[in-house]
Design a protein that fits this description.
The complex is a heterodimer of chains A (302) and B (400). Chain A contains 11 helices and 8 strands. With 302 residues, chain A is an alpha+beta fold. In chain A, the strands form 3 sheets. In chain A, strands 1-2-3 form a 3-stranded antiparallel sheet. Chain A has a 3-stranded mixed sheet with strand order 6-7-8. In chain A, strand 4 and strand 5 form a beta hairpin. In chain A, helix 2 crosses helix 4, helix 2 crosses helix 5 and helix 4 crosses helix 5. The longest helix of chain A is centred in the C-terminal third of the chain and has 22 residues. Chain B contains 12 helices and 13 strands. In chain B, the strands form 3 sheets. Chain B has a 7-stranded mixed sheet with strand order 2-8-7-6-5-3-4, with helices on both faces. Chain B is globular and about 70 Å long. Classes of the chains: A alpha+beta (302), B alpha/beta (400). At the A-B interface, helix 1, strand 2, strand 3 and helix 2 of A face helix 8 of B. Bound molecules: FE2/S2 (inorganic) cluster. FE2/S2 (inorganic) cluster (FES) binds next to loops of chain A.
């Protein structure tokens, strides 16, 4: 028996906003519908949104779900979350928001929350008349999991959005790998690639999402201040990105311009990622503190 | 913990009979001697184990010396398969079915990686085997045919003796996983074609952690667990004495109750099944309606998903089980129902009710009373309403 939160059970036994929204003759109101999943896969959701045309506001949301307890609760949660939002605001709702609203879902059921987010996206794209082929880049990628019809673009997206680090997690989130299992090795490769890409992102300030810290002239720093600043940059700018990819970095020592760090988790596991990270972290510290900084990765002592 | 539930999941496990508990208790407290010991204290325990062996042998229509106590059904299946292969190292072919328990299927899959060829016999829509397919697969290279007596999910009974006759013609060893059949249908190993047979205690009102592997006298056997000389060297390890005593008592009670309990269970099962089929549209029984265990019914409810049904049943204190993916750790629905080629509309919404001699009429009536509403509530929520639904038609199946 799965461990469900009280909120999941409450919304399962007493679902809110279940049903359809009929096309309406009301002026300035339109109904948007999004369908995802399939009976073959065992989960399907049809989401209906009643939209106020001039304000883009979601006046009402209803769902029809084929699926298990968490699929029904996730659908119900989704409708509660988006009511009252504008379509743009609704587009920012993620599967994490759905899971959080429910007080969490069993890991193996996270795909139910992903289905909710996808149905929302599908409804809004349909409403806006955006061709699915153009927008649904999930269908553009190479098919990785033939059992569940999942492409590499979709896998990459959930890895990034949910900071997934193992193939098992990918299976929990999008089902890929949960059938015959023959795609699991490819999923592992995709995870590594995504991790490599995000490590490189740290090294490319132009494309970086992290806010730029204030620069302090290195010449005015005392040793203590310098160490504190290195620690600050590592904590605020480097670690979040690494943590998101299942890795971590710890400041080990500072000798003049030599900064020694311990790489952990996914970051410490292979030699090429160690090299990438050394370069990435070094670039960040040089940018923030001093061009003469050299980063060295030290082996952890057991 | 919920105690007073309506328990209709007896193919998963059963309640330990109070008489069984009573029989085993002294062996957990006062009589703790090791049956292998030379002293009287151990000796009396040894005698009790001997009696349990006789009780189990009687249930199977076997000889005491053909009974090996194991820890569970899985161990019995594993031991039988390995023993059969070790005894005939020159043969490299195994025949089994697509609908076996994982205790057989996963061993076969592992053996494939070790150079064995495995034929997985298919089943038809009723879950039955095609004996011609079996015949065509048998060769002089076939070391082992391992086929279950009755399926745990649908209750479908395979024609074991007919299969056995064919297997014998080719000189292969015939193992039968009878975990679901023992105590539900009469067995007599004396007149049987079966060489080895697995059973498990907790499916017949004994506790978990004890089982039996029957090995016909004369069948060459290589042990799976090696150590001391317990079980005449065929299964080493100090005996689970309380479990064995319990199993002996449970076997004795099964013999006592078999005929009348089977009749009662069949009647109640049919009543449940008929009521559901009449009161609820768009549902059907999965499996062979005639060649089936008397205590099992597996019903597919179209357009809704099994785990959701189970949870609603649970709210009413009713325990059943589902072949849907979402109720299990896996993401794929039951391999048994898939092998039967059931349509997806049925596959995900299948529920198994399995009865036992404790099941009452009032309990069955309670299930009948709540089912229509549960199914209706979930169908109201479902986007799929009938097979003609546009969306259902438009589904390009992502699956094979
Ligand atoms: S191809 Fe992905 S699980 Fe089978």
């Amino acid at each position: 028996m799965w461990e469900y939160t009280d909120k999941v059970l409450e919304l399962f036994y007493n679902p809110k906003n279940q049903g359809e929204i009929e096309e309406t003759a009301e002026q300035n109101v339109k109904v948007a519908t999004g369908e995802v999943g399939s009976i073959a896969c065992g989960d399907a959701l049809r989401l209906h949104l009643k939209v106020q045309v001039n304000t883009d506001k979601i006046l009402d949301a209803r769902f029809q779900t084929f699926g298990c307890t968490s699929a029904i609760a996730s659908s119900s949660a989704l409708t509660e979350l988006v009511k009252g939002l504008t379509l743009d605001e609704a587009l920012a709702v993620t599967n994490k928001d759905i899971a959080n609203y429910l007080g969490g879902l069993p890991e193996a059921k996270m795909h139910c929350s992903v289905m909710g987010q996808e149905a929302l996206e599908a409804a809004i794209f349909n409403y806006r008349g955006i061709e699915r082929e153009v927008h649904d880049d999930d269908d553009e990628g190479a098919l990785i999991c033939t059992c569940f019809g999942i492409s590499d673009t979709k896998i990459r997206r959930v890895i990034r959005e949910n900071s997934l680090i193992t193939a098992e997690e990918v299976t929990n989130y999008v089902k890929a790998g949960g059938g015959c299992g023959s795609c699991l090795a490819t999923i592992d490769d995709i995870i590594k690639e995504v991790q490599r890409e995000s490590a490189l992102e740290i090294a490319a300030p132009a494309s970086n999402k992290i806010a730029v810290a204030t620069k302090i002239a290195p010449s005015t720093l005392t040793t203590v201040q310098k160490i504190a600043l290195i620690q600050k940059v590592l904590d605020e700018e480097v670690r979040p990105v690494l943590l998101a990819d299942g890795g971590d970095v710890e400041l080990y020592d500072v000798e003049g311009d030599k900064v020694k760090v311990l790489l952990q988790g996914a970051c410490g596991s292979c030699s090429s990622s160690t090299a990438t990270l050394k370069i990435a972290i070094e670039a960040r510290l040089r940018d923030r503190i001093s061009q003469s900084i050299v980063v060295e990765a030290v082996e952890p002592l057991f | 913990m919920q105690k007073n539930c309506i328990y209709l999941d007896n193919n998963a496990t059963t309640k330990v009979d109070p008489e069984v508990v009573e029989a085993m208790m002294p062996y957990m407290t006062d009589f703790y001697g090791n049956p292998s010991s030379m002293h009287t204290f151990g000796g009396q325990v040894g005698k009790a184990v001997k009696q349990a062996r006789q009780q189990v042998a009687a249930l199977l229509g076997a000889d005491d010396s053909e009974i090996i106590f194991t820890s569970c059904g899985t161990e019995g299946d594993n031991a039988a398969i390995r023993a059969a292969l070790l005894a005939q190292p020159e043969k490299r072919h195994i025949i089994t079915t697509q609908v076996e328990h994982p205790a057989v299927l996963n061993v076969c899959k592992q053996l494939e990686t070790q150079g064995y060829t495995v034929t997985y016999l298919s089943v038809n829509g009723k879950g039955q085997l095609d004996l011609d397919e079996l015949e065509a697969s048998l060769t002089g290279n076939t070391a082992l045919v391992t086929i279950m007596y009755a399926n745990n999910e649908t209750g479908v009974i395979f024609p074991i003796e007919q299969i056995g006759l064919r297997v014998k013609e080719y000189g292969a060893i015939f193992h039968v996983d009878a975990v679901q059949a023992v105590g539900k249908i009469p067995l007599n190993m004396k007149t049987s074609t079966v060489d080895m047979l697995t059973m498990s205690g907790h499916k017949i009102h004994a506790p978990k952690g004890v089982g039996v592997l029957y090995v016909r006298r004369g069948v060459r056997f290589r042990p799976f667990i090696i150590g001391g000389q317990q079980e005449r060297g065929r299964r080493s390890g100090t005996e689970n004495v309380p479990g064995i005593i319990a199993l002996g008592k449970a076997a004795e009670l099964e013999m006592l109750h078999l005929e009348e309990a089977t009749k009662r269970e069949r009647k109640l099962r049919d009543r449940l099944e008929q009521a559901i089929l009449t009161k609820i549209p768009d549902c059907e029984v999965n499996g062979d309606p005639t060649q089936r265990l008397p205590n099992t019914t597996n019903i597919g409810f179209k357009y809704i998903e099994g785990e959701a049904i189970l949870l609603y049943l649970n709210q009413h204190g009713i325990c059943a089980s589902s072949g849907s993916a979402c109720s299990s750790g896996s993401l794929e629905p039951s391999h048994v129902l898939r092998a039967m080629g059931l349509p997806y509309t049925i596959l995900h919404g299948s529920i198994r009710f399995s009865l036992c001699r404790y099941t009452t009429e009032a309990e069955i009536d309670q299930v009948i009373a709540v089912m229509p509403d549960i199914i209706q509530r979930l169908r109201d929520m479902s986007p799929f309403k009938n097979d003609q639904a546009g969306w259902l038609q438009a589904q390009t199946l992502a699956h094979r």
